[in-house]
Specification:
The chain has about 260 residues and is mainly alpha-helical. Helices cover about 60% and strands about 5% of the residues. It has nine helices and five strands. A hairpin with a 2-residue loop joins β3 and β4. It is globular, with a radius of gyration of 31 Å.
Length: about 260
């Protein structure tokens, strides 16, 4: 746009300058030429405007920003996690006949909450300093290691601390999600060994795992000496998150905000 405008302005200015020069004299002709050159330079420097078609009030959508709670977030019973639950890679609550609109609202809300948990700074440091939460993190890690051993995964070597730390981070993320639930709903209500939580929590566990798996897989593999081909090591990520969530629900609600 600017190059074409400059090409048009300069010849017009030159022709006008010559006409003015012949009619009114050299001085006024030079003045017209100077104005023409200045206009061409200004057009050349003007940044091009890109048409978006969205209108002046349009703003890009901000993904992962936590949305307001959905109009409905029904309770559900959450029992002790099993690694086989995650092996199917099925969507959360696939066995429930939920309306698609409600599923979308729950998933969108969980996506924002998961993003905040994954990006929360110094999670392990804070959890280690919390006498209420850290025993549950340790227990979740121990259960994840026991599952790995039961599936013929041999853990050890110089990379074992990296694996343990990765599992501890996953468990801590689950702990934070549980504390958030208790902040909103109060002390957990139990029905036998199953906790009453919200449907969005199941989505949040999956979203946290999805965001963490790729980043933590190198640390998990670093601590594995030998494993059976039939076991997906990545399943330890959602399992440790779910264990941290489940174990923390047994504790008292936190006294301060979770995030």
């Amino acid at each position: 746009m600017t190059k074409r405008s400059r090409v048009v302005i300069l010849p017009i200015a030159l022709a006008a300058g010559i006409v003015v020069m012949l009619v009114f004299g050299i001085f006024w002709g030079l003045v017209v030429l100077a104005f023409g050159v200045a206009a061409a330079v200004l057009v050349a420097k003007r940044p091009p405007r890109r048409a978006t078609g969205w209108g002046a009030g349009w703003k890009p959508a901000i993904q992962h920003q936590e949305l307001p709670p959905p109009p409905q977030d029904p309770e559900m019973l959450y029992g002790e996690p099993l690694v086989e639950t995650f092996a199917s890679h099925a969507p959360p609550l696939a066995d429930l006949a939920l309306p698609p609109a409600l599923r979308g609202q729950l998933d969108g809300f969980a996506l924002g909450r998961a993003k905040r948990i994954v990006e929360a700074p110094d999670l392990l440091t804070h959890a280690a300093a919390d006498s209420e939460s850290w025993p549950q993190v340790e227990e979740a890690v121990a259960r994840a290691l026991a599952v790995a051993e039961a599936h013929h995964v041999e853990v050890g070597g110089d990379g074992k601390p990296r694996l343990v730390q990765a599992l501890a981070l996953c468990a801590t993320q689950g702990v934070l999600l549980a504390e958030w639930r208790q902040l909103e709903d109060g002390a957990t209500v139990w029905d036998g060994s199953a906790a009453r939580v919200r449907l969005s929590d199941a989505y949040a566990i999956l979203r946290i795992a999805e965001a963490s798996q790729r980043r933590l897989l190198p640390d998990l593999f670093a601590g594995v000496l030998r494993r059976g081909a039939e076991f997906e090591l990545s399943l330890l990520v959602p399992y440790a998150i779910a264990q941290g969530f489940y174990l923390r629900l047994h504790g008292n609600p936190p006294r301060v905000a979770a995030a």
